[in-house]
Design a protein that fits this description.
Elements lengths: L1 H25 L8 H16 L13 H12 L4 H27 L4 H13 L2 H6 L6 H20 L5 H17 L4 H13 L6 H21 L11 H4 L10 E4 L2 E4 L4 H4 L2 H4 L7 H4 L13 H16 L13 H7 L1 H15 L1 H22 L1 H20 L3 E4 L3 H6 L5 E4 L13 E3 L2 H4 L5
Parallel strand pairs: 3-4, 3-5
Antiparallel strand pairs: 1-2
Length: 444
């Protein structure tokens, strides 16, 4: 037991070391672009409110992630930036741990390979490392998805006799929804699976599960009481259509978007995109249809496919939308890895298999580093832009896309977002920030 615990701590040291290295070497705090800065803004507003200040106001997305960041921020000396990043890091490690536990339920005799695969796919996977360091809600949603599936698998595998598993499934499913609404398709099949095995159970157990599920949703009820259904009106959801499966170009309020592949190919990115699986081709020859006949693995595979189709119906592509599904895919890929391991050891001995493990780990670290170029670069650009605005002394800044970034990084003047119509005359002496080369193609 102590050996397994030591291996877990050793695996957890990798993302922690990456966080400290990025902080020390590049001053990267996980904030970049628009969404991360909006999470930070609301986390700060929540900290002020919880400290006796004014109410935080309305917020379009679910408030759970910034709330967790605010609570963690109190533990970090009032630093909400550290709070958000530590919540993401803890979520990544928690999602990996739940993946390990699911694999041990299905493959208890393969603990050594389960732990090796957990480290390679769920701890050092490039997407898991990356999103565990960003101030974004995706990893917190992934934690909820994995916790819910672990509870569901344990409940069904016990014959419906484990109350704790039922309660855990309910709590983590609500946690996932509370972190990101769009993960509902990843939870619905597991929920129906549990309900099927709930037949004839005591009403008290079900009520207890519902009470636990209500806990992660309380912040939503308190902070979103005035606009509880605003997310349903989002353009991406309102325009969802199977017609988009076969399209790769879309026009919407954010401009014209053109992608290299149609949405039906994009739907499978959690299975094959190099940002998630840089060595997918190494695993493909060892995949077999019978790999997903154990426990609820076929239901899990169908769930990931359902989620992919849900994403394919949205008139937009974003690689990070696949993050909540990736840990499930990693669990499903374990028997493929196991077959590769046995083949390598039987044909060529342990030396080749160890080389494959090192290759897997090294290539994933390389892709992790490459994937950080954009967020780290944008974060540094935001700092430079904020410094330039401060030096100009401009009382007003007309900004597109980096409004949250320059506000977070120290510009205290009035910011007018060019995404919105400007109904007032241009202010003399104001500064304008617009990257024409980057954004002009969106508005031809």
């Amino acid at each position: 037991m102590s050996t397994a615990r030591n291996r877990i701590f050793a695996a957890a040291a990798l993302p922690v070391a990456c966080l400290l290295l990025l902080r020390a070497g590049w001053s990267f705090d996980g904030l970049y672009g628009q969404d991360a800065h909006e999470y930070f803004r609301y986390a700060r507003a929540l900290m002020d409110w919880l400290g006796g200040g004014p109410p935080p106001g309305d917020y379009f997305w679910s408030p759970n992630y910034p709330l967790l960041g605010a609570l963690a921020g109190f533990c970090c000396g009032g630093d909400a930036v550290w709070g958000l990043q530590l919540v993401s890091l803890a979520s990544a490690l928690g999602a990996a741990w739940f993946g390990r536990q699911i694999l041990l339920l299905w493959w208890p005799e393969e603990q050594r390979e389960v732990e090796r695969w957990t480290f390679l796919a769920l701890v050092s996977g490039p997407a898991m490392l990356k999103f565990g360091l960003l101030g974004m809600s995706d990893m917190t949603a992934a934690l909820g998805v994995m916790g819910a599936w672990h509870g569901a698998v344990r409940f069904v595998q016990s014959g419906g006799n484990t109350r704790g598993a039922l309660w855990s499934a309910a709590f983590w499913a609500a946690w996932a929804i509370g972190a990101r609404y769009a993960v509902a398709p990843l939870l619905l099949p597991a929920g129906l699976w549990v309900l099927y095995h709930l037949r004839g159970r005591r009403v008290g157990q079900v009520l207890a599960a519902l009470a636990l599920a209500a806990l992660p949703l309380l912040p939503y009820a308190i902070l979103k009481w005035a606009t509880p259904t605003a997310f349903v009106q989002h353009e991406w959801l309102a325009r969802w259509s199977p017609v988009h499966f076969f399209q790769s170009a879309f026009a919407h309020v954010d401009g014209d978007q053109n992608y290299p592949f149609p949405n039906l190919v994009y739907a499978a990115y959690s299975w094959m995109h190099p940002a998630y699986w840089p060595l997918a081709l190494l695993l493909v020859p060892f995949a077999r249809a019978r790999d997903w006949r154990i426990g609820g693995s076929i239901l899990m595979a169908a769930t990931v496919l359902l989620y992919g189709l849900f994403l394919a119906g949205i008139p937009f592509q974003n690689l990070r939308f696949h993050l909540p599904a990736y840990p499930l895919v990693a669990v499903l890929a374990f028997p493929v890895w196991l077959r590769l391991a046995r083949w390598a050891e039987e044909r060529f001995g342990e030396a080749l298999f160890h080389f494959i493990c090192i290759l897997f780990f090294g290539v994933q670290l390389l892709f992790f580093g490459l994937s950080l170029r954009s967020p780290v670069g944008l974060s540094q650009t935001e700092r430079r832009l904020a410094e330039a605005l401060v030096q100009t002394g401009a009382p007003v800044a007309y900004v597109y896309y980096v409004d949250g970034g320059v506000r977070t990084r120290g510009y205290t003047g009035e910011i007018r977002n060019l995404w919105f119509p400007q109904d007032t005359p241009f202010t003399a002496g104001a500064a304008v920030l617009f990257n024409e080369r980057q954004f002009a193609p969106l508005f031809n």
